[in-house]
Amino acid sequence: MHENNVKVGISACLLGEEVRFDGGHTKSKYCVQTLSEFFQFRQFCPEMAAGLGTPRPAIRLVGDFDNPKLIYSNKQGNDTVEDLTHKLSRGYVKFIENQSDLCGYILMKNSPSCGMSRIKVYQDNGHSHAKKRSGLFAEALMKKYPNLPVEEDGRLNDEGLRENFIMRVYAYNRLNQLKGDKLTMHNLIQYHSKYKYIVMAHNQKAYKSLGRLLNGSSNLSLQELYKFYSTKFMQAIAKPAKRAHHFNTLQHIFGYIKNSLTPTAKTDIINVLERYRKFEVNLATPLSLLNHYIMQYGSEYIKSQYYLNPYPEKLGLQNYI
Ligand code: SF4
Question: What is the 3-state secondary structure (H, E, C) of 136-159?
Answer without folding.
Answer: HHHHHHHHHCCCCCEEECHHHHCH
